[in-house]
Amino acid sequence: MFPPFFYPEESFRHRQQLFAKSALGRFHASLPISQLAALLPERKTKLGAKPWFDNYAKIALQFLKAYEGRSDAKLLERLNTDWALQMFCGIQLASGQQIKDKDLIWKTRTWVSAHLDKDKAQALLISHWKPWMSNLHLGMSDATCYESYIKFPTDVKLLWDSIQWLHRQIKRLAKALGQRRPRNKYKDQKKKQLNYARRRRKTRKLERRRRRQLLYLCNKLLFQMGSLLDTWSQQEAPDENLVDEFTWQRYQIIGKIHVQQAYHYEYPAESIPGRIVSLYKPYLRPIVRGKESKRVEFGMKVNTWQVDGLNFIEHLSFSAFHEGNRLKQGIAFHHRHFGKLRTVGADAIYATNANRSHCSKLNIATSFKPKGRRKQDNLLRQQEDLARKAIATARSTVLEGSYGNDKNHYGLRKVKARNELTEVAWVFFGMMTANAVKVGKRMAKALPTDTRNRIP
Fold first, then answer.
1. Which residue from 174, 186, 168 is spatially nearest to 250, judged by alpha carbons?
2. What stretches in the chain show pLDDT beneath 70?
3. In the prediction, which pLDDT does 454 show?
4. Are 162 and 254 in contact (CB under 8 A)?
5. Number of C-beta neighbours around residue 309 at 10 A
6. CATH ID of 118-150+284-417, from 3.30.70, 1.20.120, 3.40.30, 3.30.420
7. For 351, phi and psi rounded to 5 degrees?
8. I need a labelling partner for 439 at 20 to 30 A (CA). Which of 272, 293, 410, 424 fits?
9. What whole-number distance in Å separates Cα of residue 455 and Cα of residue 19?
């Protein structure tokens, strides 16, 4: 015999109690999911099958993805078998019922990333978490790069990826149009590319020869595909499914890559603005960080503003920017969401004369190393040095340490999203998930001890 609380009429209430007591339940309690779901547009039609996820579940699923740190397939498998994850998303699958659409997770992420206003969502989360935050007069700023999950780009790899895509499209178009496939040296270059990739030592002379050959082949394939596209467009009723918008965009991107790489081959010392480094993620740009182990990173650069251990996005871009020029905007961000700022912590790159003057004008203490003549009073000078050192220590430990926590535990070490919008959403929900876990622990500590440990 099952205990009384496992009878159908009692099991759901007991599961709710267990869920509220768990770490996942505390995380759920710290999130205003209903308010965030209200930022999404409602479903316009009631025709067709009822969707598995409503707006509430779609938002909850993004936080759950970052919290669990699983792949989409593993997360869907857990969602089908774990009642706690279903309760987190506000759904309940019947006995024997399963979600079989393997693409549902990334489809949901794509839809949410296209329709959710990240600035409004962040402002809503800040207002919800403010009662559980202290030291609102102190703000700290720094920048980090959340790298994309791509192979390390080189000129040879980029050109070969472009050639492979063009070759596949030419085969497909020629077959669909009933034409003979144009002749080219793809098979010969494929063997040479394999031999080049196997070489342990790739000299500069060999690399330039390989680029020259690939540039010639890429140019030939571009013209061959262009000829097939002209034939397709001149048909009386061209099949629109044969050449969609994505194919046109990718073809134009490869044309731009060829122009950039040809210029780079002729003038290797010249800088190329807007240089494409990945065929599949053309929005990425090289971001020179100057680190000892990783001089260049490829991903999203985020200027972070931290208040009471919680990180918020002040500015993000896939192109490099000077974070030292963002301090004024960061101070305005703090005033807009947290009120008066009295102390700011930032590293030496923010300590420009313009930023120092702006902070002095607003009577904001900083962790910057002082310039000019010091005060005559030794005691006052020592107090200022101690305060400045405390702020700098907090910034270097709490703020910089939070980056490692986010990247190690919330899926931000290598962002595996496939386009620009979903990559922004991936980083946003990862950072907000790390904040929500901290707030959930604070909310649990604020409860009375007997309430925390007892299942009512």
1. 168
2. 1-12, 48, 290, 292, 372-377, 448-456
3. 45
4. yes
5. 19
6. 3.30.420
7. -85, 55
8. 424
9. 10
3-class secondary-structure state, position 202: coil
- Enter the tokens of residue 413: 């070490």
Contact yes or no for 99/107 (Cβ under 8 A): no
CA angle 202, 265, 282 (to 5 degrees): 90
Q: What's the angle, vertex CA 430, arms to CA 418 and CA 302, rounded to 5?
A: 80
pTM score: 0.89
Residue 64: both structure tokens together: 């759950």
Long-range pairs for 355-360: beta carbons < 8 A, 24 or more residues apart = 355/324, 355/327, 355/328, 358/327, 358/328, 358/331, 359/327, 359/331
Rounded-to-integer distance, Cα 154 and Cα 182, Å: 28
**DSSP symbol at 349:** G
For residue 162, which of 294, 53, 261 has the smallest C-alpha distance?
Answer: 261
The C-alpha atoms of residue 377 and residue 259 are separated, in whole angstroms, by: 64
Identify which of 234, 276, 286, 228 has the alpha carbon closest to the alpha carbon of residue 255: 276
Q: 207 φ, ψ to 5°?
A: -65, -40
Residue type, 374: R
